[in-house]
Amino acid sequence: MNIANIIILTYLLGINSFVVFSNRICKNYNQHYLKDKFTPVTEEVNIKINHENKLFKQLKNSFFAQIGSNPKHVEGEDYHWFDGDGMIHGIFFNNSFMTYNNKWIQTKRLEVEDKWNKKMYLYFGELKGFNGIYQIFKYAFMEILGFLPPAKGTANTALLHWENEIYALHEGDMPYNLNVNYSACTISTKGRLNYKNIYSTTAHPIIDKKRKLLYLYGYNNYDFVNGKFIFNVFNRKMELLNQKNITLLNNGMTHDVGFTGNDIIIPDMPLKYDFARMFKQELPLYFDNKDGITRFGIFNVKTQQDPDWYYFNNNFFIFHFAKTYKKNNKYNIFACVMNELHMEDFVEVDHVKNPEHIIRGDLRLKKIIIDIKKNTTKIIENENLNNLPLNFNYNLDFPIESQINKNHIYCTIFNAGVGYIHGYVKINTKNFEKSEPQIFLFENNMYGNSEPQVVVINNKEYLLTFTNDDIKSYISLIDIDNNTIDSIEINARIPPGFHSLYLKHKN
Question: Is 227 helix (H, G, I), strand (E, B) or coil?
Answer without folding.
Answer: coil
